[in-house]
Design goal:
The chain contains 17 helices and eleven strands. By secondary structure, it is α/β, with parallel strands linked by helices. It has a domain of 260 residues: Amidase signature (AS) enzymes, CATH 3.90.1300. It has an eleven-stranded mixed sheet with strand order 1-3-2-4-6-5-10-11-9-7-8, sandwiched between helices. α5 runs parallel beside α6. The longest helix has 24 residues. The structure holds asparagine (ASN).
Length: 493
Amino acid sequence: MTEPTALTIAEARDALKAKTLSAGELTEAYISAIEAANGALNAYVAVTPDKARAMAKASDERIAKGEAGALEGIPLGIKDLFATEGVHTQACSHILDKFEPRYESTVTSNLWSAGAVMLGKLNMDEFAMGSSNETSYYGPVKNPWRKTGSNVDLVPGGSSGGSAAAVAAHLCAGATATDTGGSIRQPAAFTGTVGIKPTYGRCSRWGIAAFASSLDQAGPIARDVKDAAILLKTMASTDAKDTTSVDRDVPDYEAAVGRSVKGLKIGIPKEYRVERMPEEIEALWQKGIEWLKDAGAEIVDVSLPHTKYALPAYYIVAPAEASSNLARYDGVRYGLRVPGENIADMYEKTRAAGFGREVKRRIMIGTYVLSAGYYDAYYLKAQKVRTLIKRDFETVYADGIDALLTPATPSAAFGIADQDMASDPVKMYLNDIFTVTVNMAGLPGLAVPGGLSQDGLPLGLQLIGRPFDEETLFSVGSAIEKAAGRFTPKKWW
Ligand SMILES: NC(=O)C[C@H](N)C(=O)O
């Protein structure tokens, strides 16, 4: 029999339904896999076996009574950014030390209401700021993938590095993640998994620690396109507690998987052919184009003229919002408190000790671009650029384009403590060059594996859709998946 942890969500769902596997057995298999692997991979920052067993037992009882929910008995990992009642929720920051919320985020409560089982909390870049998972207070996550014949540890990408690594290494059936500028799609690309950032407003942000509220969106990381569709269906909802969540029915995303792409118009934006793009990324993109042509789609060259301004504008808007959102961590209500001479001294000492370097850098950039005298020159201008970026997409969609195809990242996974990235934060920020436009425009974006690099590392393609048209992304994504195949790392841990 296949190992229970090797099953996709769709397969596990069938096995649970056929009663050839129980939720208890499936959950035990994941708990053992985490125990065996987490010391090496550091994907989980908190494991909740007792809770998982109790949830699985309840699932088995519901299955026996014929009352199974859409995700009944499916063991999931949760990014540490989501509030989980009574369970470690620290956005992988020292400043939230020992914080265990008294409430549950809307996305996770949707999952538990559908019968899913929580395995624990997943590592991430501190407050989701990073592209390598190295800014986590809990240390870096190791990518389950290594170059062929090498034993050098690589990053899994970030900020949802723990989510991506856990899914790739089969330490959960699927995971929640969030994406502000690429945090779902870049780690998915680096680990050979599938990740979707839905349209802004599709998932409730309630109970997710805020980084940049106008850009943050939750979404799943999964082993294949179908599993991503299954997870998003339950994660998405309209929520009175988040006024930016939209009042729209959630479609049956799973039904879109495998649907024909014949006649769809796929745009290829020429501005994504950036300078010094590695040949293998260019080749991957070309392969994606050929696969979609073979599947009957029409390929159209398009232009998104303001693309090159997206990254600099993102690194103004995101830090500006972060500096405001992170003002709440002051040592008064929750988390870390470092005593001081007086209250101002206590704030200073707490924030100095509680935040890591990258978070401090963003707070300083954000405070600067919002300050009197600089607001118009930076923040206001960046917001105007954001409108131009959004209009670029509106123009191509008005011309009948159904979705756009681009690479997901400008490279494959790089080494932990990469000197180039460590010495120059802008080099790290360049990881987001293909993904931030999507957040700036509020659009859905899907990352799907397209193949392996010459060194044997996964490379991802990105599909960008019309607002609230995640279904087309699932259809086109599954056409790519069908042609490219699926990718699982060789176990070394
Ligand atoms: N949060 C994200 O989407 C990650 C992005 N690399 C950032 O550091 O802002």
